[in-house]
Design goal:
Blueprint: H1 8-12, H2 15-24, E1 27-30, E2 35-38, H3 41-48, E3 53-54, H4 76-82, H5 93-102, H6 107-111, H7 114-130, E4 133-135, H8 136-141, H9 143-153, H10 163-171, H11 180-206, H12 212-217, H13 224-237, H14 240-255, H15 257-265, H16 270-280, E5 286-291, E6 295-297, E7 300-302, E8 307-311, H17 312-315, H18 350-367, E9 372-373, E10 392-394
Parallel strand pairs: 2-8
Antiparallel strand pairs: 1-2, 3-5, 4-10, 5-8, 6-7, 9-10
Helix pairs in contact: 4-11, 7-9, 7-18, 10-11, 11-13, 14-16
The protein binds protoporphyrin IX containing FE.
Protoporphyrin IX containing FE (HEM) is lined by residues 48, 55, 86-87, 98, 149, 233-234, 237-238, 241-242, 245, 283-284, 287, 339-341, 345, 347-349, 352-353.
Protein name: Cytochrome P450
Keywords: Heme, Iron, Metal-binding, Monooxygenase, Oxidoreductase
Organism: Nonomuraea longicatena
Length: 395
């Protein structure tokens, strides 16, 4: 099968297509999106660190100067939120925003959250075990990271149910060629989410609590749009991928019973197991970059103004870097996967994600030692953010 991100069979198993791309067209033009696909680990890894590319071009040129159309007017609320978060900014704005926010995400700060993460994970898994199982994604994978990031930011418990649908709708815009319906849903979600956060920030400015929104609301140099963009980014990025690593990870374990038995027999494998699960079925399959100067990738000349699509899922299965890349090896010691990215946009939440995953997998291994699959899961249609609809298990 060829690279076909709108085909459910490809989404379910993109790895043969990737192998073909790496062999035959490691840097190849993809007509339907007008992007250059980059399939090899060495190229993806180098491009993520290359300052001649950017998540945006708006720091150096207008849409017109870059030979691109401005987004349609109706999308303005979505872009306003998106473009104010650090992920879609480049230096110097990126540096400034990342520095402000990273204080809350140092490994030491995040490590201090571990007891609370453990408590939440333990509580969710206890309830799941007591009811005899069910949908692991809805009952454990989603609520854990949503609760953790919502508590960090200080989103009241009664409002947390809003976060997941807003995030899912907003993230629809990250898929390749989203439908008009998905675009409208994303814009609606961005408008509601931004309005909600403006209200919350105004409240906290007057009556600060011990939370990140209060802390950010006190920073005078942060504009209101930057505050909203930052909170939306943290709330969305703070759970989307973690949910999918949990779901994809357990599905990988069920498909590799020998490895699952190995992990059950030796929980000390958990740290390498989590890295391996993130490599083997990468939750974020692709990230894009704009080419800001003429460059060459793997011997192919790529002109300024082009967009490249970096295929993380392919890079993570590259035999040039990983021994037997298609084998799930929970003890894999040499594992330079790029699931958290690389370079200046390297995932700010990686230490937190690792703690969440260790605690949720750990709690499930301990409290549900014989958990088994009830029925084969179905993949959601999304390719870029790739995860399961549900994962039905019995305890
Ligand atoms: C296993 C879960 C996660 C994965 C696989 C993941 C992956 C990534 C990747 C690949 C990027 C870089 C994208 C690019 O270069 O274009 C990124 C950026 C980011 N992630 Fe994560 N992430 C995860 C969890 C989290 C969590 C829990 C947070 C918590 C707040 C978070 C916050 C962020 C932020 C703020 C950025 C933007 C960093 C910047 O632009 O400098 N992520 N993430």
């Amino acid at each position: 099968m060829r690279f076909d991100p709108w085909n459910p069979d490809f989404v379910a198993f993109p790895y043969d297509a990737y192998a073909e791309l790496r062999r035959e067209a490691p840097v190849g033009f993809f007509e339907p999106t007008g992007q250059w696909l980059v399939a090899r680990h060495a190229d993806v890894n180098a491009l993520l660190r290359d300052r001649r590319l950017g998540r945006t071009y708006l720091h150096v040129a207008t849409h017109e100067e870059f030979g691109r159309l401005s987004p349609p007017e109706f999308q303005e609320p979505w872009w306003r939120v998106n473009n104010a978060g650090m992920l879609d900014l480049e230096p110097p704005e990126h540096t400034r925003l990342r520095r402000l926010v990273s204080r809350a995400f140092t490994p030491r700060m995040v490590e201090s959250l571990r007891p609370r993460v453990k408590e939440i994970a333990g509580g969710l898994v206890d309830a799941f075990v007591a009811q005899g199982g069910g949908d692991l994604i809805a009952e454990v994978a989603e609520p854990l990271p949503v609760t953790v990031i919502a508590e960090m930011l200080g989103v009241p418990e009664s409002d947390r149910g809003l976060l997941r649908p807003w995030s899912a709708d907003m993230c629809g815009m990250f898929e390749l060629n989203p439908s008009l319906e998905a675009q409208h849903a994303a814009v609606r979600a961005a408008t509601e989410f931004a309005g909600y956060l403006r209200g919350l920030a105004a409240e906290r400015r007057g009556d600060p609590g011990d939370d990140l929104i209060s802390a950010l609301a006190q920073i005078e140099e942060l504009t209101e749009d930057e505050l909203v963009g930052t909170c939306v980014l943290l709330l969305n990025a703070g759970h989307e991928a973690t949910v999918n690593v949990t779901g994809n990870g357990w599905w990988a374990l069920f498909r590799n019973p020998g490895e699952l038995a190995r992990l059950r027999a030796d929980h000390s494998l958990l740290p390498t197991a989590i890295e391996e699960l993130m490599r083997w079925d990468t939750p974020l399959q692709m990230f894009e970059r704009w080419v800001l100067e003429d460059i060459e990738i793997g011997g192919v000349a790529i002109p300024k103004g082009v967009e490249v699509a970096l295929l993380f899922g392919s890079a993570n299965r590259d035999p040039e870097v990983f021994v037997e890349p298609d084998r799930l090896d929970l003890g894999r010691a040499d594992n330079p996967h790029i699931s958290f990215g690389a370079g200046i946009h390297f995932c700010l939440g990686a230490p937190l994600a690792r703690i969440e995953l260790a605690e949720s997998f750990g709690a499930l291994l301990t409290k549900a030692p014989a958990m088994e699959l009830v029925k084969e899961p179905v993949w959601k249609p999304g390719y870029v953010i790739r995860g399961l609809e549900s994962l039905e298990v019995a305890i």
